[in-house]
Amino acid sequence: MFHLVTGLPWLVVLVRFILPLPWPWTLKALLALVLLIASQYHYVSRLSSGSVFAPEFPRPLVIAFNVLFGAIVLLAMFQIALDAVSLLVMVFTGAFPLLAPEVRYAAGLAAIALSSFGVNRAIIVPPLKDIEIVIPGLASAFDGYRIVQLTDLHISRLFPAVWSQAMVAKTNTLEADLIVITGDFIDGSLEHRRADIEPLRGLSARDGVYAISGNHEYFFDAHAFLQHFAAMDMLLLSNSHAVIERGTAKLVVAGVPDRSAGRNGFAAPDLHAALDGRPDEAPVILLDHQPMQARQAAEAGVALQLSGHTHGGMIRGMDRLLARANNGFVSGHYQVGSMQLYVNNGTALWPGFALRLGRPAELTRITLRQAA
Fold this sequence. Notes:
It is a single chain. This protein is an alpha/beta fold. The chain folds into two domains: 2-123, no CATH class; 128-370, 4-Layer Sandwich (Purple Acid Phosphatase, chain A, domain 2), CATH 3.60.21.10. It is built from eleven helices and twelve strands. The strands form two sheets. A six-stranded mixed β-sheet has the order 1-12-2-3-4-5, covered by helices on one side. It has a six-stranded mixed β-sheet with strand order 6-7-8-9-11-10. Helix 1 packs antiparallel against helix 2 (25-39) and helix 4 runs antiparallel to helix 5. The protein is elongated, with a radius of gyration of 23 Å.
């Protein structure tokens, strides 16, 4: 069913864009075939690795598939918009207008150009995004405390070791007090990703690296991955917390596993357990991969929740659809009751649809500030 759904944009392009072109049938058939194969990118990924989430073929081919798949989706949207305008014209003229070939050429070129630009923006090592967040009750010893949030790394054939190494090197220049990774480390098996994730061992911060699981960990051998990350000197928070101290001042960092953990034989997220025994006077920073439970975290007394998962919506406009699936939270800073929520656009994103238009990736440095 999934592969039939991804074929629907291709069908729109075939019927409303390719067939009306004034080209020889052989050229139209060739274009239709190329785009049909591109529309089944996820099926090809499944053939290569057994999973739609992990293409295991050369990176240039993964990039090409993403560019073409994105172009199909965009072109289908453009064609639907053109047909909607044509229907409106028909209401007033009584005839459905025939589009000049030049209009179709312009739409096709725009789709491939936008898709190419969007894929390029998706696969770069992201630029730094600096934000400050005021935390009520924060001790003066933690005023100016710097947290670098990495999330949705999706290390894969699209984001291989060379990308990981560059991202780690850039992160380490930020001189963070703490690095947090809020899930979705990988796409693929540990056997395939071992070399690609190795650069993460080089992440360095004064108070270490804390991490939680994301939903993509559970698409593969989560147990092996979580053990491997723990052996890389990351503190994995699973319904638990850690206390960071500066003299007598304290800051709590808590973490819960992804919501899909319970469906895969692991402990389900339990915020009560994660906060149990924490120092009452210390502000709590919660790491939760998905932002949809933010209101429950606010009710539990969390000061700041850091999440990812949504990739910021990837495309401006489409982010509204993803917001509906995440209780309204999709990108950036939110005030949720007395708690603040930051939803990170992601350091990278899923290689199955690597396209960013108006929702850039980010390497996020969060500076904590005392309330006045």
